[in-house]
Design goal:
This protein is of the alpha/beta class. The protein is about 35% helix and about 20% strand.
Amino acid sequence: MLFIGIDLGTSAVKLLLMDGDGAIRRIVSREYPLYFPHPGWSEQNPEDWIAAVEDGIRELTDGVDRSRIAGIGAGGQMHGLVALDQEDHVLRPAILWNDGRTQQETDYLNQAVGKKKLTEWTGNIAFAGFTAPKLLWMKNHEPELFARIAKVMLPKDYINYRLTGVHCTDYSDASGTLLLDVKNRRWSKEMLSVCGLSESVMPRLFESYETVGTLLPEAAERLGIPSGVKVAAGAGDNAAAAVGTGVVGRGGCNISLGTSGTIFISSDSFRVDSGNALHAFAHADGGWHLMGCMLSAASCNKWWMEEILKTKEYANEQSGISTDALGTNHIYYLPYLMGERAPHNDPSARSCFIGMTMDSTRADMTQAVLEGVAFGIRDSLEAARALGIDVKTSMICGGGAKSPLWKTIFANVLGIELTVPETEQGPGYGGAILAAVACGVYPTVADAVRRLLRVTDTVKPDPVIVRRYEEKYRVFHTLYPALKNLFPTL
C-alpha cells in the first residue's frame, strides 16, 4: 500500500508518498500566492490550493503503480476561514491564521463576553488569528456575505471536501476555531450563538485518523488514481507534525520551527492553562495537547536574510557564529513581525532590535534573530512549567531545525535535550501516517508511530551556555512589557 501525505502550508503545499513501512518514496511541492490587501491582512485564494494539490498529486504519482495508493491524509494551516455559500462556492478569499484585522472582535470576545466564559465553553480565550473573530469581522464588515454563509470550513478541510464531497473537519483543527467545546469534543452552542451561526453551517466532526470518505469519481479522474482511495480527516498542522515526529500520548513534546513557531505538549487528559498563554486543543491521536504558538519563527530568519541582508546563503551567514559566542550577545531581537500570539496575545506587538553599539557586527545581529525566536518559545515553555509540566526533552522539526546552530541555541536557551526525527517532513508525514491508520494498516496512531519513527540526532545543552542564557532570558523577558504601550502608537 501507498499513502499520500499533504502539508498545506502558508506559502506552499508539500506532498509526499509513503509506503506501509514508513519510507518516503517521493516528495513534491507547489507554491501559491499570499495576498496582503491591507496592512495586517493575510489572505489566499482556496482555488490556488486546489490547483497546487491536484497538480502536485499527479506529479507525485507519475510512474507509480497507482492501484497501490490506498489513502490520503492532510495536515494543514490552522484557523483560516473558508466560507461557502449554498452552492458550496467560496464567498471571499480565505482569511488566514496570521491575519491581524480582528483586534476589535477579539477584544469584544475577551472583554464583553469574557475570558472566563470563553474558557468554560471552549477551553481557550480569543486570539486574533482564530476563526471565530474572523466570522464576527465578516458579520460586522461584510454583512451581506456573512448572511450567505452556508458552511464554515478550514483550509485542509476544503481540500478534503473537494476530494470527497464531504463537509468535514477533525477535532484538532476544529479546536483552533474557538467554536469547539474541546473538552467534550463537540461544537459549542454558546459560541455559535455569539457568532450568529447555527450548528448546521459547521462541518461534521471526525477523529483525525477516521475515514471521512473516498474520492469522488471526478476527483479520481482528475488525479488519475482509484476512486476507492480513502481520505482521512487529517489534522491541524501542529497536531499532524506531532504525529509525524512521534509525539503522542502523555508527556510528549515537539518544537516546530516553520513560518510560525510552536511548542506542542501532548496529554491523555484535558487541562487548561489558567493564564491562557497556552492553547488547550484536541490532539490527532484522540487525546489532547497544550500548545504555545508564536506567529513569526523561521520567517524572522527569512526576513532578516532575504529582505535585509539580501542573501539566501543562510549557512554562510551563520558560519561566523561560534559556540563560544552563545549567551554572550549584547543585542536582543523581539520576534513580533506579525504581532504575537503566545503568550502575549497582542496583534500590535512589533519586531525590533535593541542593544546595538558601535562594535555590533552583522553576525551579532544574525545571532540575535536566532536567539529572539528561541526566547519566544521559552516564554511558552515557562507557561507550561508553571502548570507543573516538567519537559526534559523534545523533538524538533521544521525548516529552521535544519540549522545545527539554531538547534544548539534552542537546546541551551530551553535547557532541554532536543532530538531530531529521521523523517523531517512534519505535517505531511503525519498526514500519511493518519491515512495508514484510517486504512487499517495500524490499529492506533500510537502503534503507528512506535513502529515507524526513528531518531537520527540528539542535541544536548551545555551547562555553561545554559547559565549564560538564563541571564539573557531574564533581560529578554522584561523587554515586551517595557515596550507594550509603545507598540500601538507605531
